[in-house]
């Protein structure tokens, strides 16, 4: 699976970075950085990736096949 | 470390689930039972009054994942607590023992209907949101009772679907929390979008059985295809009756989310922090507080120091395309002490500062990441 980040929806809550710190972080300006843009999420990261998707209160993250 | 052998969380809510995740993250490997009355399990509630009222497909994004948490689920309401024997009883007849209990049952919508008056619509659960969405699709007119955040979000959803909306409240929109400056501008924004605002002299009554409208104290009546009550919430504490844990405000907790009974903790909309001298006891039923308290409660259950205070004064809303984010204590009074940007264009950051108090910052229509707003707050602090 891949993760699609809707940057227009993102409000910078940062919960995804807490759930999956290897995939997400916030920069110094509190803007979201997704570290696997366009890439497949590795199997070892799947659980954390889905937790990150679900933790987002504005549903800015979507799982795409 | 003296860790509990069995932890029971009552309330499959953001507070309850955050606590469960935090317990596991802190290495708790013991028994963890989640008792909740939501048939479909935990889901995100903030979108219920926003996206879910507009698009059914959004429901696919609501569920919180929990498969990795090794939870035992009881999908039935808790109906009683015997704190001396440490047992929770459920509607489906179970008796669930605990060493540590977290009360995270949240709140229910406050209702205005008389007993046995049918057809009152409220918005609190996914089932409520689905029902209102279906009704909006068929309605030409709607009355929203309550000009708080929830009421204005529901009114926004109605306008987006071409439904004529009247919002009734005894106070101007958002006045109670955001003061006259924001209230006046939000009122103008609503009026520009065709929303009719009625300021009732007193509290309104629902009329009809099933409900068809509202009666104002001047004797006039307003009716519509759809009447939705958005008049706040009440803590879900009926199951705690007889324990002394709940009063008319909710369940009192201290800075560690402990209640008055050892081994019993509370977090989220059901709870309120014991006020300081001269402060009024009140709940702050916002999503960010539920998250903060869920984490603090988990640390306390394990006998570990709390990671941060059990409060997080932040919330966001969206009123007819106007996003509003608020960081800091409420209510604010009077005009902001500083304004950056253009308020009337919906592109501003407002700030209220007063000596000796934490400042409050409001992003009014301007898209500012929450982290930056929080930092603005830190910078502004004396």
TrEMBL record, chain A:
Residues 1-29 form the 4Fe-4S ferredoxin-type domain. SUPFAM superfamilies: 4Fe-4S ferredoxins. Keywords: 3Fe-4S, Electron transport, Iron, Iron-sulfur, Metal-binding, Transport. It holds the Pfam family Fer4_15. It comes from the Bacteria. InterPro entries: 4Fe4S_Fe-S-bd (IPR017896), Fe-S_cluster_ET (IPR051269). The keyword Thylakoid does not apply. Its cofactor is [3Fe-4S] cluster. One of its GO terms (molecular function) is 3 iron, 4 sulfur cluster binding. Coiled coil: none annotated. This is Ferredoxin. It comes from Nocardioides luteus.
Automatic annotation (TrEMBL), chain B:
GO terms for cellular component: cytoplasm. The keyword ATP-binding does not apply. It holds the Pfam family Pyr_redox_2. SUPFAM superfamilies: FAD/NAD(P)-binding domain. Residues 7-294 form the FAD/NAD(P)-binding domain. Its cofactor is FAD. Keywords: FAD, Flavoprotein, Oxidoreductase. InterPro entries: FAD-oxidoreductase/Apoptosis, FAD/NAD-bd_sf, FAD/NAD-binding_dom. The keyword Transport does not apply. GO terms for molecular function: oxidoreductase activity, acting on NAD(P)H. Transmembrane segments: none annotated. This is Ferredoxin reductase. It comes from Nocardioides luteus. The lineage of its organism: Bacteria, Bacillati, Actinomycetota, Actinomycetes, Propionibacteriales.
């Amino acid at each position: 699976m891949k993760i699609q980040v809707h940057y227009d929806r993102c409000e910078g809550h940062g919960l995804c970075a807490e759930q999956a710190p290897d995939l997400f972080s916030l920069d110094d300006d509190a803007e979201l950085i997704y570290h696997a843009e366009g890439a497949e999420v590795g199997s070892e990261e799947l659980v954390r990736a889905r937790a990150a998707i679900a933790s987002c209160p504005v549903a800015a993250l979507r799982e795409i096949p | 470390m003296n860790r509990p052998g069995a932890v029971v969380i009552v309330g499959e809510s953001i507070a309850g689930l955050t606590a469960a995740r935090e317990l596991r993250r802190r290495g708790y490997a013991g028994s963890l039972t989640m008792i909740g009355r939501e048939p479909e399990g935990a889901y995100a509630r903030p979108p219920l009054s926003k996206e879910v009222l507009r698009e059914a497909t959004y429901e696919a994004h609501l569920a919180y994942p929990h498969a990795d948490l090794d939870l035992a689920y009881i999908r039935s309401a808790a109906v009683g607590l015997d704190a001396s024997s440490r047992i929770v009883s459920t509607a489906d007849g179970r008796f669930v023992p605990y060493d540590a209990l977290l009360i995270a049952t949240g709140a229910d919508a406050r209702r205005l209907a008389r007993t046995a008056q049918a057809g009152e619509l409220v918005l609190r659960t996914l089932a409520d949101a689905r029902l209102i969405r279906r009704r909006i699709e068929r309605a030409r007119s709607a009355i929203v009772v309550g000009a708080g955040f929830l009421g204005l979000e529901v009114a926004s959803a109605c306008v987006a679907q071409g439904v004529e909306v009247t919002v009734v409240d005894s106070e101007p929109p958002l006045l109670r929390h955001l003061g006259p400056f924001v209230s006046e501008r939000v009122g103008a924004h609503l009026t520009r979008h065709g929303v009719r605002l009625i300021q009732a002299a007193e509290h309104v009554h629902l009329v009809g059985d099933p409900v068809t409208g509202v009666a104002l104290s001047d004797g006039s009546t307003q009716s519509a295809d759809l009447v939705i009550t958005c008049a706040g919430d009440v803590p879900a504490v009926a199951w705690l009756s007889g324990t002394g844990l709940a009063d008319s405000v909710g369940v009192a907790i201290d800075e560690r989310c402990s209640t008055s009974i050892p081994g019993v903790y509370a977090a989220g909309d059901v709870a309120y922090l014991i006020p300081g001298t001269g402060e009024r006891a009140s709940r702050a039923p916002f999503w960010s507080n539920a998250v903060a308290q869920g984490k603090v409660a988990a640390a306390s259950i394990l006998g570990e120091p709390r990671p941060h205070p059990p409060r997080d004064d932040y919330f966001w809303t969206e009123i007819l395309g106007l996003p509003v984010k608020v960081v800091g204590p409420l209510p604010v009074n009077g005009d902001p002490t500083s304004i950056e940007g253009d308020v009337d264009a919906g592109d501003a950051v407002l700030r209220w500062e007063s000596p000796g108090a934490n400042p409050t910052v409001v992003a009014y229509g301007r898209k500012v990441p929450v982290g930056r707003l929080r930092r603005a707050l830190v910078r502004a602090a004396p």
